[in-house]
Amino acid sequence: MDNPTKKSNISSYIKTGLFFLVAGVLIIYIVIGLFLPDQSVKVFGFKPYVIVTNSMEPVLKVNDLVVVKKADTENLEVDDIITFRADINYDGEKEVVTHYVYSMTGTGDNLIIRTHPYFVNSADYTPDFWVLNSDDILGEYMFNVPKLGYVVEFVKSPFGIAAIVVNIGVIAGIVYLMKNGKDKKEI
């Protein structure tokens, strides 16, 4: 005869193990994202970015969440969408940009990539003024989730972080009180 308590314990161990596995992966992802943000694509194979300008509308809109994968620069083609770092203001700071590939010349370390924003008419294509090399490429477009950038930006804000911490505290308190009340009933 099967022992229901033993099955329940095994199920509980599996659930606990899965929880800690997922939590551990998320913690590693967050730590790498905080301290080595450009490396998370290399480590995990993907990374989300939020679109902050209208240069790709209507294809990608402001506050869309774009997920990019590790880019193989040798296989990129004209009109692929890539995410990269470029000094768009000539202020010495490189910003994250998502645009189409306009042209590619050279190979390997000598690869030169030009990009362009969205244009309705291909005759209007004008390349961006910056020039990229393979080190500037953060990733190649996989897919986007409309409007999810609002959530990401909220979570990154001080108010969003405070709201998450307070909610975790409230949930932990409820779980503690429920467990504590259940233990008293068993006595």
Write the topology of this structure.
Elements: H1 4-35, H2 40-44, E1 46-50, E2 65-69, E3 81-86, E4 95-105, E5 112-116, E6 137-145, H3 148-156, H4 158-186
Antiparallel strand pairs: 1-2, 2-6, 3-4, 3-6, 4-5
What does this structure look like?
The structure is a single chain. This protein is of the alpha+beta class and 187 residues long. It folds into three domains: 1-35; 44-147, Umud Fragment, subunit A; 157-187. The chain is built from four helices and six strands; from the N terminus they run ααββββββαα. A six-stranded antiparallel beta sheet has the order 1-2-6-3-4-5. A hairpin with a 6-residue loop joins strand 4 (95-105) and strand 5. Helix 3 (148-156) crosses helix 4 (158-186). The chain is elongated. It starts with a helix and ends with a helix. The mean pLDDT is 88.
